[in-house]
Write a structure and sequence with these properties.
This is Purine nucleoside phosphorylase. By secondary structure, this protein is α/β, with parallel strands linked by helices. 22% of the residues lie in helices and 27% in strands. The N terminus is likely disordered.
């Protein structure tokens, strides 16, 4: 892992905002990095995951820093204990829920978010109905089409049309590092797999899989942004569960509208 001096760490960003969403008036959309927090190794340093072996005091302080940095001090926050499923929650108030891997809302002043450390975070903004969603898509959620379920739920609840949505496919494990066995591989389209003929090692492209699911729902390609970063290749900036053998922190990807 690349190391930084303390002075260099102070200059690194706590978060990145998707370019596609950066200019939307009143919208907060951010994906955290691993920089700028207080947690010691192996959670160094901006660990935002409650369900880790880090201390709750560290995570609370890190969350305060993150939410302050993105300008969300006065906003409520809704999240869930994620189970790698496909359930979608319509969040109307702040809280820590259980069993959902996607949250959606049209409530101003309420952020929704998901924690990740290799799985794909997907942020959705409906620019007409002013509704948002945050999706956690690991391989199970991806083959279960959770991002399509989320768009369908937004359509039912808010009148969302996929053609009106801006979608950010966030930082996750890359297509050269997400090695899978044959039982998992057979659940992906062949076009999303690559197999090394020398080693027989098969990897899947989770980013492209989720982007294609959005395209199939009717989201225009010009309204989909895909993160250029990898939790493995850029492990100095992002947490990776696989690269760090399970002992690591978690990032947050959040989205929401400021209260009028």
């Amino acid at each position: 892992m690349m190391s930084y001096t303390p002075a260099e760490v102070q200059r690194l960003p706590l978060y990145r905002t998707p370019a596609l969403l950066a200019s939307v008036d009143g919208l907060i959309a951010a994906e955290s990095t691993r920089h700028g927090g207080v947690s010691p190794a192996p959670f160094a340093s901006l660990n935002l995951g409650i369900n880790t072996d880090d201390t709750r005091a560290n995570v609370d302080e890190n969350r305060l820093r993150f939410f302050s940095a993105i300008g969300a001090d006065g906003l409520d926050f809704a999240s869930s204990y994620q189970v790698h499923g496909t359930a979608v929650l319509h969040a109307t108030e702040a809280g820590r829920y259980d069993g959902y891997d996607a949250l959606m809302t049209n409530q101003p002043g309420l952020l929704v978010g998901v924690t990740v450390a290799d799985c794909v975070p997907v942020l959705i903004y409906d620019k007409v109905q002013r509704a948002v969603a945050a999706v956690h898509a690991g391989w199970r959620g991806t083959v279960g089409r959770i991002v399509q379920s989320t768009l369908a739920n937004m359509q039912q609840q808010f009148g969302t049309r996929p053609a009106d949505c801006l979608v950010y496919i966030g930082t996750c494990i890359d297509e050269n590092a997400f090695e899978i066995g044959p039982d998992v591989a057979k659940q992906f389209a062949l076009s999303l797999l690559q197999t090394d003929p020398q080693t027989g090692r098969t990897c899947a492209d989770l980013k492209r899989a989720n982007a294609e699911l959005c395209l199939a729902m009717g989201v225009p390609a010009s309204q989909i942004e895909v993160s250029p970063f990898s939790t493995v290749l850029h492990n100095q900036d992002y947490f990776s569960y696989r690269a760090e053998h399970g002992q690591t922190g978690r990032m947050l990807a959040v989205i929401g509208l400021k209260a009028a």
